[in-house]
Amino acid sequence: MPLLEFNSKGIYCQQADVYIDPWRPVDRAIITHGHSDHARWGMGHYLCHKHTAPIIRARLGVTNIDTVEYGETWSKNGVTFSLHPAGHVIGSAQVRVEYRGEVWVASGDYKLQHDNFSTPFEPVRCNVFITECTFGLPIYQWQPQEVIFNDINNWWLENSEQGKTSVIFGYSLGKAQRILQNLDESIGPILTHGAIENMNKVIREECCPLKPTTLITRDTPKSAWAGGLVIAPPSAAGTAWMNKLKPLSTGIASGWMSLRGARRRRAVDRGFALSDHADWNDLNTAIKETGAECIITTHGYTGTFTRWLREQGYKANEEHTEFEGELSEINEAATKEADEVATEKEEGKE
Ligand SMILES: [Zn+2]
Per CATH, which fold does 5-140+276-346 belong to? Predict the structure, then answer.
């Protein structure tokens, strides 16, 4: 019996009777991070990092949560567990599971780039490593974050000089705070859509300080956002809420923006290829640093990436999960684009 198995409810440790990021209601769940495809409603009991707890309390309305620090261990039925930084979003964790000398690590979502906000990823030695591969093709190679934020700040400055409001779309947990903390606030005021400000409030009150932001309400005067930058969720794009911000320029921050045509299809003025997931090189680096001989791929380009790992000499298998990676951060159009890229790759067109 494997230490962790994939069943219809989630990633299951039978020996300790606990699930990791289950997608169906179970009695006991360890949660890697607060994104909706990993932290779901209906569990009998939740266990997560102390910074993930306020996020899932706010999002799911649940209170039956225990928390741990990174590196703190706990045991059940001879199995020892601990959480280690995944660098994906605030509070995100890899789950280390050890039983009779065998170590498995379920990494949830992760990135190796330091974002100046989340606790940086730490490699954990193990025998079996469970990895996402949202961007598991060689075409995905991120530029250093400084380069991307230089682009974002320059775009904002140009808009400001032309009397336009800058509106940047990013997912409310993770991307929004990463953008906020890396903006050059000397350019102008930073404002937020309600969905972003709700998450900022939770993080400010229960996790850590953030740069100041102003929530845009019905009563906010236009003078408040003159020359400013507004952080909004992707779902706000094209809605009536945007009208009062005109004249404006729109941008979106997502790993999918590195794909040809992605910006045009999203009907935004600028696309910034900024992702909270590992790119091709970092996936390979992370896997190598675990020292694992066996790799299980869960979401993203699983088929292609698994074949690649086998060619490199790993024992590799893909498992079906209901995790969505960065697809959940944008929309189904990205799924289609990702499929097209994978198909082109398979057919040798790329
Ligand atoms: Zn995530």
Answer: Metallo-beta-lactamase; Chain A (3.60.15)
